[in-house]
Design goal:
Layout: E1 2-5, H1 10-24, E2 33-40, H2 44-54, E3 60-67, E4 77-83, E5 92-99, H3 106-110, E6 120-124, E7 143-146, H4 148-151, H5 154-163, E8 169-171, H6 172-175, H7 178-191, E9 196-204, H8 208-221, E10 225-230, E11 238-245, E12 248-254, E13 259-263, E14 270-273, H9 279-287, H10 294-301, E15 307-311
Parallel strand pairs: 2-3, 2-6, 3-5, 6-7, 7-8, 9-10, 10-15
Antiparallel strand pairs: 1-4, 4-5, 9-11, 11-12, 12-13, 13-14
């Protein structure tokens, strides 16, 4: 069910949300958190679709603040849309489209829509404040999510993000390398490696996931990690990690969107399932954790200092 409200107020949205649930037989029981999304109108449906899919694992109320593309100076008003039932996955979705209003209106706009006694998580899908925790939405959130791949800026962008970092912040670029980190840790255990003499990570130029993975390795091993860039070749993100070890060279190489090959000394190559993950899967991972991700914070603040970059084709 979808209900549109034009030139409305926060109070009217709350009242209408209750009526819609009663009329449609939908209930809000079992909602585990409020998920705030601050995005632009052009990305609205994409982020709602991902949040709806993630909500099947984490039932929640989704509140989307969608910045209007109308010219500044328009008469201030608030349009809204309520989605429940099949149009909202396992959640209920409230879309707020403020027009002609400044940033300082945000707390008053969303406060009445927060679920009582439930955590609040905020996601900035494309652009985010310099310090998420100090922003109006960040101050009411236990977890704050950005995507440095969308924010851009490469290595310099991560440095800027680190300057505004506070415990509770996280990055979907970090979630994208969870599988790589898991597989590399398992490889170290499997081979019982005593010494690592060199590390090289290869990925798309300026890709923050490759930088964070290199930073994680540098921090864990206490040594510089070479980060090289490569042409796309149909594979984005991280494409290879190689380790010069006391046992010989160990190499993980992505073959396609679903598979990597593990090459170790004196053994046949192994094909491993390591699929590229969609936006909903990344969100679901981050929503499982409501406390600070200490490892991410350490990598962002200290790990990327171990990364040495160059550009190869």
């Amino acid at each position: 069910m979808i209900v549109e409200l034009l030139d409305t107020t926060s109070t009217e949205i709350q009242k209408r949300l209750i009526r819609v649930r009663e009329e449609g037989g939908a209930v809000a029981l079992g909602r585990v958190l409020t998920f705030l999304i601050h995005t632009s109108g052009s990305k609205e449906e994409k982020v709602i679709e991902a949040a709806n899919e993630a909500s099947r694992e984490h039932p929640m109320r989704i509140v989307v603040i969608s910045d209007s593309e109308e010219a500044e100076g328009s008469t201030p008003r608030l349009d809204a849309e309520i989605r429940v039932g099949g149009d909202a996955g396992a959640s209920e979705v409230v879309i707020l489209r403020p027009i002609g209003q400044g940033e300082d209106f945000l707390p008053g706009l969303v406060n009445g829509l927060l679920l009582p006694d439930a955590p609040v998580v905020t996601w900035w899908p494309n652009q985010c404040p310099a310090c998420m925790a100090d922003s109006d939405l960040g101050q009411i959130s236990q977890r704050r999510i950005l995507d440095s791949l969308e924010v851009g800026g490469g290595h310099g962008g991560l440095v800027a993000i680190a300057e505004g970092y506070r415990p509770g912040d996280t990055d979907l670029a970090w979630s994208r390398v969870t599988g790589w980190r898991t597989q590399l840790a398992a490889t170290f255990d499997y081979l019982d490696i005593e010494r690592v003499d060199g590390v090289r990570v290869v990925g798309m130029e300026g890709n923050p996931s490759a930088m964070l993975l290199a930073g994680w390795l540098g921090l864990a091993l206490g040594q510089d990690v070479q980060l090289d860039s490569t042409e796309h070749r149909g594979i984005g993100g991280v494409s290879e990690v190689s380790l010069t070890t006391s046992n010989g060279e160990v190499k993980l190489t992505r073959l396609d969107e679903r598979t990597v090959t593990l090459r170790v000394p004196n053994q046949p190559d192994f094909s491993l399932f390591l699929p590229r993950r969609g936006l909903a899967s990344l969100l679901a991972e981050e929503l499982r954790r409501l406390g600070p991700d200490k490892v991410y914070g350490e990598v962002l603040l200290e790990g990327i200092k171990w990364v040495r970059t160059s550009s190869v084709k």
